Each structure stands twice: as structure tokens, then as C-alpha cells.
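Dear H.,

Thanks for agreeing to be a second pair of eyes. The structure we're designing against is below in C-alpha cell form, covering all 290 positions.
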């Protein structure tokens, strides 16, 4: 079954909800990067969040990049998404692992560590918008809720989850974002807060077979919740040989010349592991362009 992202309105359009299932795209990322279970959960949660944040972009060419820079064994998480729900990502150390946490769950915070969350929004202006906050827990969902509260001053509930099978493959992955307008009555906010507190995790609800529509109605506690937009998120890298050429041109003239000493220079994309080859003649041409 294909992944889905659905936007909803509830409580007389005062509350916005976005629900997404990302099982297929997170599994694709796991296979591309040969991830261990805990890095699968860490990257999967970030890919899920980026998918939703990308879908929030109103600009046709809007793009969002998320950097989670922690001091744990995982290293950096880098994820990028556009408003067409095409997302890609990578981690420094796909083999990082840690013992299960006290709840018997994958210990994402242990491999992420302490550090910083950066959100870079490119909406076609001269300079991108950059927001950053210190990581609060390293569990990722709580860190993004804190980012919205501090950097964008929008009270936001965030849920992200990745459920991994015993063989390491992804069983279920998904998440939701809930945001209320400033004039939403306090009693509605409390109603939603209580419902979220008593509800199962996103992956548990998906595992039970609940649809995104059923999840949105349940967590909003509003039977009149309705869908306004839907799309299919996918793991999609936009790399190309031309992009790799531009990356090579960022190197110094001497470095390019050193690479040109080989018959073939091979460059690998960090996001999809696709390899691009440049002949000696092509490298010498790049050297001349510097």
C-alpha cells in the first residue's frame, strides 16, 4: 500500500492536522543506507517530519532542509524535502547502536546525543530562513515541538514513530502535526491535549489498521474533522551529474588537478548512493573553469 499524507481541518477550521504514513519511504531509506534499527528510527522520524514540513511550504519551489547535529555516535542527520512530498536524507553513521531504553524501545536519544536542530527554509528569496534550537531530548518529535514553540512561536503537537521488525525492516512509520489558530478556545486545546495523552502512539494506531482519517478524528476528538488535501510522499533524490560537477567546482584548483591524475574520478551521492564518473578529460575541463 502506498504512503499517504493528508491535511485536515477540525473544530470549525480552528485546528489544522496533518497525518502521514511513511512506511515505504523509510524502508527505502533503510535499504539505501543499510541502516541498523536505531538509526532507522532516527532517520525515519526526521524524514517523516520533513515530509510534513515540506508539504507546509506554499511556494512551488519551496524546499526545507533539516539538520540534527548531535554529539552521539549517530553523528549528523541531514534531510531535505520539497512541497511535492519528495524527501531524502542521510546519517553520518548508519551502524550506530545503543541498548534499548527503560521502556524497551529503540533508544534514539542515546545515539543522537546533545546538540542542535537547524531548520533551513528556501522559499526562493535571496537568503533562506534559518531557525535553530538546542536539542531537548534527542527523541526528535519533542525537539520539533520545541522548535515550533521557540523559533516560530506556534504551539504545536508533534508525534513521530518508526516500528521496526525483528529483521530490521520497517513495519510501520508515520506521524502527525497539530496546530491551532491563536483564537482557539482553551477548552478545545485541553480536549485535544487530553486525547493525545490517552491515545496510542502513531505506529500503534497504524499497526491496528486505523486509517489517517480515523487517526485525525480520534486525536482531534472532533467527529466533524475533514480532509482538505492529500498527496503521496516518496523517497526521491534529485541528484544529477550536473549537480556533482557544481560540487566538484567548490574544490580548490589544486584538489581538482589531483583528482584529474586518475583515469576516472567517481563521486557518490550521500542521499541515494548513486555513483557518477568523470573522465580525466572532464576533470581537466573543470580545472580550466576554476
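And this is the sequence the design step returned. I haven't edited it by hand at all.
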Amino acid at each position: 500500500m502506498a504512503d499517504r499524507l493528508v491535511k485536515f481541518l477540525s473544530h470549525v477550521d480552528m485546528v489544522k492536522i496533518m497525518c502521514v504514513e511513511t512506511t515505504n519511504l523509510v524502508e527505502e531509506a533503510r535499504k539505501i543506507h543499510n541502516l541498523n534499527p536505531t538509526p532507522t528510527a532516527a532517520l525515519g522520524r526526521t524524514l517523516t517530519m520533513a515530509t510534513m514540513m515540506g508539504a507546509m511550504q506554499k511556494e512551488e519551489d519551496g524546499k526545507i532542509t533539516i539538520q540534527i547535529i548531535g554529539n552521539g555516535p549517530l553523528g549528523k542527520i541531514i534531510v531535505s524535502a520539497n512541497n511535492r512530498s519528495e524527501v531524502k536524507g542521510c546519517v553520518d553513521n548508519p551502524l550506530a547502536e545503543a541498548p534499548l531504553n527503560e521502556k524497551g524501545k529503540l533508544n534514539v536519544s542515546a545515539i543522537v546525543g546533545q546538540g542542535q536542530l537547524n531548520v533551513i527554509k528556501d522559499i526562493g528569496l535571496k537568503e533562506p530562513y534559518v531557525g535553530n534550537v538546542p536539542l531537548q531530548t534527542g527523541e526528535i518529535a519533542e525537539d520539533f515541538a520545541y522548535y515550533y514553540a521557540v523559533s516560530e512561536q506556534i504551539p504545536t503537537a508533534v508525534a513521530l514513530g518508526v516500528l521496526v521488525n525483528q529483521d530490521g525492516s520497517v513495519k510501520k512509520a508515520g506521524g502527525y502535526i497539530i496546530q491551532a489558530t491563536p483564537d482557539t478556545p482553551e477548552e478545545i486545546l485541553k480536549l485535544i491535549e487530553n486525547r493525545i495523552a490517552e491515545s496510542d502512539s502513531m505506529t500503534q494506531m497504524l499497526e491496528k489498521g486505523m486509517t489517517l482519517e480515523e487517526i485525525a478524528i480520534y486525536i482531534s476528538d472532533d467527529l466533524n474533522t475533514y480532509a482538505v488535501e492529500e498527496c503521496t510522499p516518496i523517497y526521491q533524490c534529485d541528484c544529477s551529474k550536473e549537480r556533482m560537477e557544481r560540487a566538484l567546482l567548490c574544490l580548490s584548483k589544486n584538489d581538482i588537478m589531483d583528482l584529474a591524475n586518475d583515469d576516472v574520478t567517481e563521486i557518490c551521492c550521500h542521499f541515494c548512493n548513486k555513483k557518477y564518473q568523470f573522465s580525466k578529460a572532464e576533470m581537466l575541463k573543470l580545472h580550466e573553469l576554476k
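Two observations from my side: The first strand starts at residue 4 and ends at 10. The chain is about 35% helix and 30% strand.

Warmly,
E.
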